[in-house]
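Ticket reopened. Same input as before:
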Amino acid sequence: MQEATFLILTALAPGSQHGYGIITEVTGISGGRVRLRAGTLYTALDRLRADGLIAVDREEIVDGRLRRYYLLTDHGAAALRAEAARLQANASAALRRLRLAGGTA
Amino acid sequence: MNDAVILERRYRWLLRWYPRWFRDDIEDELLGVLMAGAGDGRRWPSAAEAADVLWTALRMRFWLPRPGTQSPGWTDAWAVFSVLGPVFVLLTNIVVVLVPPYFLRVHAVNWAGYTGPMPTQARWLSTDLHAPYGWKPFATALICEAILVAWVLLLSAGALVVIAGATAIRLRLGWHTLWIGAALMYPYLLEFASIASGRSIVFWPGYYSDFLGFDVTSLHMVVVLSLGPAVMAMLAVLIAARGRLASSDARLTPGT
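Engineering reply: fixed in the latest deploy. New output:
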C-alpha cells in the first residue's frame, strides 16, 4: 500500500470526510510532511472507490458546488488494519535490532 | 470579472485534461477543493497544482489498464501483452513494407526473393503456380503488394485500436484485451506453428501446401486473410462498449 493511500484511509478511519477535509487531515497526520494535491487525491479516491476500500457516504451542495463525503468500507478498514499491523511489525523489528546493535557496539 | 471567477475558469480549462467520464463525475467537487486551497486574490493556478492536475490526467489517459482486485498479477501480464503484442506486429509490418519493392524484378528473377520477407498470407497467394493469379507473375506481384499493404494497414489500425482502447478508455478488462492482441499475433503464431511442425507453409510449384495434414485452398486463404482483422474489429467494439459501461457503473453508483 502506498503511503498516500495509507494516509487517506487513515484520515477516513474516524468518520466520513469531504475532499478538502481529507487533505487537511492527511497533512495533520503526517505532521506536515505529506501535502496531497487535489488531482492526486481525486485519482486516488477514484481508485479506492473502484477497489471497494471507500464509498460515498453522502452528498451536499455547498456554495453551489457538489461536496461528497467519503467513508471507509469494512473492506477498507480491514485493509488499513492489516497494513498498520504490517508497518508496526516492521517498525518494531527495526527498533529491536537497533537496540541490539546499540547494546553490542 | 473578479479574481475567483478568473481562477475558476482557468482551473476548469486545466481539468479538461482529465478523461470525460472522470470530469463528469468529479469536476465540480474537485474544482471546489482546488478553489478552497487556492486562497483569496489568486488569479492563476499554482504551478504545483497545475503540474499535479496535468500529471494525474495524463496518467489516467495513458496508463496501462489498472490491475483488478482478483488476480492483479495476471491482469498486469495480459495488459502488458495486449500493448506489446500490437506494437510488435506494427513494427514488424512496417519493416516488411519498407523492404525494397521486389515486385519490380520478381517476374525476371525468382519468387523466393520476393516472397521471403512477406507475411504468410501474402506468400500463400503469390508463390503457387496454381494460385489465382499465378499464371501472370507481374500482375500477381502487384496484387500481392496491394494485399500486403492492405494487410499492414489493417494490422496497424488494429494495433492503434488496441492501444487506444486500453489506454484512452482506461480499460479495466485486462483479460479481454488479450484476445485482440492474440488476433493480431495470429499470422505469426500460425507460421511459428508450421515451422515447429516441420512443414513449411510456403508453397512449392505444382501443388497447394498442407498444414498439419490440412489441404490449403484459395478459400482458406481468403478466410485467413479476413479472419484476423474481422475478429480484431469485433472485439475492439465489444471491449470499447463494455469498458465504457463498466466505467459508468463504477462511478455513478454512490455507496459502491
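The radius of gyration of chain A is 17 Å. The longest helix of chain A spans residues 74-104. Please confirm and we'll close it.
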